[in-house]
Design brief:
By secondary structure, the chain is mainly beta. It contains one helix and 14 strands.
C-alpha cells in the first residue's frame, strides 16, 4: 500500500505540472540528436536505471556557418544501487546562442519500484542552479535602448524537476518536466520582451530494441517536446546494429531536420557516437548543418559490471 501511495502522489504532482500553461515564445532547452543516450539531462527518473555507472560527454555545434549559432556542451554521470533501489547522478551543461549563454549544474535522485515481472518504474527528482548571461553590449542597436547599455548577469537561478521512467530489458517510456520554476530574467528595473524567463518544458520519450538475429539488432526511439506558445516538436530515430558494436541510423525531426547517426563500441564499456543534421526548414539556406559528438564510458563507483537491466536505447 505504501508504494501505491507514493506512485499516486508522484503522478498527481506530475499531472498538476503538465496542466499548467503559461505564455511563452519558443523552446529554450537545447536539442540533442542522440537524445536516446542522453536521457538524464531531461529525466531524473533515468538516473541509475542502466544498472551500472556511466560517464557521458556530448558536444553539439548547431547550424554551422550561421552567425551566433547554438553551441551546447554537456557532461553527466549516474549510477544505481540495486540493494537500495535508488539511483543518483549529476549533470553540467553549457548552452550558448548568440549573445546569450547559460550554464547549469543539476543533481538527480531516483527511486525504483518493481511494477511487473519485466518492468521497473523510476521516480526521479532533479535540483540545481543555472547561471545566465546576455552580452547585450556587443549588440548594435539603432536607438539608445537602455536594455542594451549593460550586460545581464543572473548568477543564481535555482530550479527543480520531476520525471518517471518505465523500463524493461528492451523497452522504455519516460515522462518528465526537468524545470518546474519559470525564473524571470530581468535587467535591473527594465523588463521588456527582449528579456525572457526560463520556460517549463514537457518531454515524452519511448524506445524499443529488436533482436533480429544473433548478429543483427534494430532500435526505434522517439521523443516529444512541448512548451506553451511553441509548436510541439517530434523526433523519430531508427538504428540498425551489427553484433552490438556498429550502429548506423537516421533521425527525422518533424518540419525541422533530417539526421544521420553512427555509433561504434570499440570495447564493451566505451561508445563513440557522431551525428550530422541537415536543416529542412527555412533556416537551411543559411547554415551547413549540425554536428554532434558523444563519448560514453561505463565507470561504476560500486565496482560492478554492466548487466542487462534496462532497454538498450
Amino acid at each position: 500500500m505504501g508504494r501505491r501511495i507514493k506512485i499516486a502522489a508522484f503522478l498527481i504532482l506530475l499531472l498538476v505540472v503538465l496542466l499548467q500553461g503559461k505564455e511563452a515564445s519558443a523552446q529554450q532547452d537545447p536539442l540533442y540528436t542522440q537524445y536516446m543516450d542522453n536521457l538524464q539531462v531531461i529525466n531524473p527518473g533515468y538516473a541509475g536505471s542502466e544498472g551500472v555507472g556511466n560517464v557521458l560527454m556530448v558536444a553539439r555545434s548547431q547550424w554551422v556557418e550561421f552567425d551566433g549559432a547554438p553551441a551546447t556542451r554537456s557532461f553527466t554521470y549516474n549510477v544505481g544501487d540495486d540493494n537500495k533501489n535508488v539511483g543518483i547522478g549529476f549533470s553540467l551543461m553549457s548552452d550558448k546562442i548568440g549573445p546569450l549563454k547559460q550554464t547549469g549544474f543539476y543533481a538527480d535522485y531516483s527511486y525504483f519500484l518493481r511494477v511487473s515481472e519485466k518492468f521497473k518504474l523510476g521516480l526521479g527528482l532533479k535540483g540545481g542552479v543555472s547561471f545566465y548571461r546576455a552580452n547585450l553590449v556587443a549588440l548594435k542597436t539603432v536607438d539608445s535602448d537602455p536594455v542594451f547599455s549593460r550586460d545581464i548577469y543572473e548568477n543564481f537561478l535555482p530550479n527543480v524537476g520531476v520525471g518517471m521512467f518505465l523500463y524493461s530489458e528492451d523497452t522504455y517510456f519516460g515522462l518528465s518536466v526537468p524545470k518546474l520554476i519559470e525564473n524571470t530574467i530581468t535587467h535591473e528595473d527594465v523588463t521588456v520582451d527582449y528579456i525572457n524567463k526560463q520556460l517549463m518544458h514537457l518531454y515524452f520519450v519511448a524506445g524499443h530494441r529488436f533482436a533480429l538475429s544473433e548478429d543483427f539488432q534494430f532500435k526505434t526511439n522517439g521523443m516529444m517536446r512541448w512548451v506553451s506558445g511553441a509548436p510541439v516538436s517530434f523526433d523519430m530515430t531508427v538504428l540498425g546494429g551489427f553484433r552490438d558494436k556498429f550502429w548506423v541510423g537516421a533521425m527525422y525531426r518533424f518540419d525541422d531536420a533530417l539526421g544521420l547517426l553512427t555509433q561504434f563500441k570499440p570495447t564493451p564499456k566505451l561508445t563513440i557516437g557522431y551525428s550530422y543534421d541537415i536543416t529542412i526548414s527555412e533556416l537551411g539556406a543559411f547554415n551547413s548543418g549540425t554536428h554532434e559528438i558523444m563519448f560514453s564510458y561505463d565507470l561504476d563507483l560500486f565496482g560492478r559490471s554492466r548487466e542487462p537491466e534496462t532497454a538498450e536505447k
